[in-house]
Amino acid sequence: MSKRRFDTIVIGELNIDLVLWDVPMPENEKEKLAKDMRFAMGSSSAITAHNLSMIGSQVGFIGKAGKDNFGDFMIQQLQKGGVDTSGIIQNSNLKTGATIVLANPPKKALLTYMGAMTELTINDMDWDYLSQTKHLHLGCYYLQTGMIDSVPALFTKAKKLGLTTSLDTNWDPSEKWKTDIYEALRVTDIFFPNDEEAIHIAHEGSLEDAIRKLSEMVKVLVVKAGKNGAILSTEGKRLISSGFQVKMVETTGAGDSFNAGFLHAYLNGKNWEECLNFGNACGALAVTDLGGTGAFKDKKTVARKLNIILNA
What we know:
Blueprint: E1 6-11, E2 15-21, E3 36-41, H1 44-54, E4 59-66, H2 69-80, E5 84-91, E6 96-104, E7 107-115, H3 127-130, E8 133-138, H4 151-160, E9 164-167, H5 181-185, E10 190-191, H6 195-202, H7 207-215, E11 220-224, E12 230-234, E13 237-241, H8 254-267, H9 272-286, H10 299-310
């Protein structure tokens, strides 16, 4: 492949996170107290892009946001992380989305207003911009309501441009788990569901059956299993990589950080075992601080901490 400007371009949603830590579930007409709070850059796709940049990849981003304080904040945070934001469209008629994260480690509950993210469509794609990358990653598939029907066409055209592709879904808020996604998977090189999502997407009763079914559709299936690591299935082969033991603070962005680590290793020619290992290390680093990017603020510190995790 000829020299390209970016290693990865991420297409996805933009929304802020308000993370409330160690908080009881709300009840009508009652006030509950949180132990801690963090206002942070949210959205699965943006976290993947930011953390991918902070571990050394050249990253661009395509998305849609409101021309408002939240939208400005998201773009500024991506830029601080070294992400190229020239592919982001701001519109004064739209509102940037927001997610309230109720974090009670190891679990969390999310409440999201989607806002501008639903307005991004394939017609917003700048193909000259996309032709400047090696790899295309689409995040938060089920929240990209303006893009869902076009993902097969998007990935097919990307592959004609010589790009490899990857997809993450996150949870389906409708919980319908429509099988339309199967068409997209057939033009996806790497699919990144977590274990629960894989079972629902495959409409199977067990993770083993889900892996078997999804592996028939996608070139490389990578199932994230939290602290238990990850499972990779490709060409009839199976690899299992254990997670790393770290002091957990909060789990927001762990899976997105795994994606970043895996893709960084993949695009640097590492083998599948090395990709899984580095993905797990980045996921482990993510949970050591509040917010999805809290542990990925300084490249030298990130490199040092990842080295400690990998060699522990």
